[in-house]
Amino acid sequence: MSEQIYDIFVIGGGINGCGIARDAAGRGYKVALAEMNDFASGTSSGATKLIHGGLRYLEHYEFRLVRESLMEREVLWAMAPHIIWPMRFVLPYHKGGIRPAWLIRLGLFLYDHLGGRKLLPATATLDMKRDPAGKPLKALFTKAFEYSDGWVDDARMVVLNARDAADRGATIMPRTKVTSARREGAAWTIETQDTVTGEKRAFQSRMLVNAAGPWVDHVLSDAFGKNQVHNVRLVQGSHIIVRKKFDDPRAYFFQNPDNRIIFAIPYEQDFTLIGTTDRDYKDDPKDVKISDEETTYLCNAASEYFKEPVRREDIVWTYSAVRPLYDDGASKAQEATRDYVLKVEGAEGQPPLLNVFGGKLTTYRRLSEHALEKIGEVIGLKGTPWTAKSSLPGGDFPVRGYEAEVAKLKGRYPFLADPHARRLVRRYGTRAAMLLGEAKTTADLGRSFGSDLYEAEVRYLMAHEWAYTAADVLWRRSKKGLYLSKDEAAALDDYMAGTRVHA
């Protein structure tokens, strides 16, 4: 049994779990977090990677959620200007389309004015015969609306929240599964097992937070022994990555005849990301992968807009995740609420449990604040809300200061090629210098694993960001998996295994 009693024990290392742990640790609570796999290994790295108000949620009258999301865009951008940046979205329109022009204009008017926008530019109307955004599209689309939202490196946002929580004193445990949780007197006894070593441990905590995402009901049934648990509706969202379809830095918002929408977004310099799908999912979330039907759907939907069709052979990578939406009884997957629901359980005198249902990347910080309000009500308040004016690790530079940070890094490390310097600032912000250390030449960065991934970066990720396998580095801490061959990835795995043994 661990000697100390924690105030809060969080189950789940996705964006909500890590966000709650960070906020709580910053207020002075004693916090522990257990994640059964790597951070963001589930839903939180399988998003469309947008910090957005959710234009389409207006159709379902989710005004509270849209307003909160719109207000959060600039707050999050200021917190993490290295991994979040503004993006313009082009919404092509043609007469006889799915939604009339007046409805789109009304939606965009609300979008511009509902959420206290200060830095992001307002909506504009484009003549697609003249605007470069019209070039890759079919001639049918002569007009478009353009609006602002944000882009985020989702998995990095999760791990940076975990890193900051740890820096503020939280005990952070990836690859640690909660096997049981029971109330004993005034505290929870939580038993865990390290999924790598098999080591079992027990912890005590005054409060438990179940933020296991798609596994939230599994935790309630497996760890707590509850029967007939059904709180979340699992909705699968899949994406395809193809070679770059267009050179414009803007993204596209495409409306489909079935009333669903997909995005086509510039991705990692050389690619285009197309997604997402929306369909109910009944199987184990760990087995989720894109289906043939979804692949066909995304290729066909994008091909309705692009002059050059999107073909299956263009696909270089796919990813799929399960969104754990609160089950509000909606008839269609795309109509289920994207809002979050927080529920506290526990009779008077019993240690409480907070279950977190739903949520999205954009609202994670506000969800965490709301969770801390509920936590304060049941175990006593500590501290005050603080995250709105904070920076995530590496994000302590001005909101529009990315180019200046790149120039600063190149000035200090003149041997860095421009694309490499840009990537390092995009991933690590001001902490890029921590990673590069005293390096004077490229050789000082150690072994090259392919592309511009060097030993210095891998060692940094292992030491500071809990990276354990090549997949952790290639697909979550970076997207270098798009550039490395299978042999190079295997060599990286071998290197990391050897490094762990000798650490």
UniProtKB/TrEMBL annotation:
Q: So what EC number does this one have?
A: 1.1.5.3
Q: Which cofactor does it need?
A: FAD
**GO process terms (BP):** glycerol-3-phosphate catabolic process
Instruction: Give the protein family.
Output: Belongs to the FAD-dependent glycerol-3-phosphate dehydrogenase family.
Question: What is the catalytic activity of this protein?
Answer: a quinone + sn-glycerol 3-phosphate = dihydroxyacetone phosphate + a quinol
Q: Which PANTHER family match?
A: GLYCEROL-3-PHOSPHATE DEHYDROGENASE (PTHR11985), GLYCEROL-3-PHOSPHATE DEHYDROGENASE, MITOCHONDRIAL (PTHR11985:SF15)
Q: Which Pfam families match?
A: DAO, DAO_C
Q: Which residues form the Alpha-glycerophosphate oxidase C-terminal domain?
A: 387-490
- Swiss-Prot/TrEMBL keywords: FAD, Flavoprotein, Oxidoreductase
Record-given protein name: Glycerol-3-phosphate dehydrogenase
What species is this protein from?
Answer: Rhizobium paranaense
Q: Name one GO cellular component term.
A: glycerol-3-phosphate dehydrogenase (FAD) complex
> What are this entry's molecular-function GO terms?
glycerol-3-phosphate dehydrogenase (quinone) activity
Residue limits of the FAD dependent oxidoreductase domain?
A: 7-364
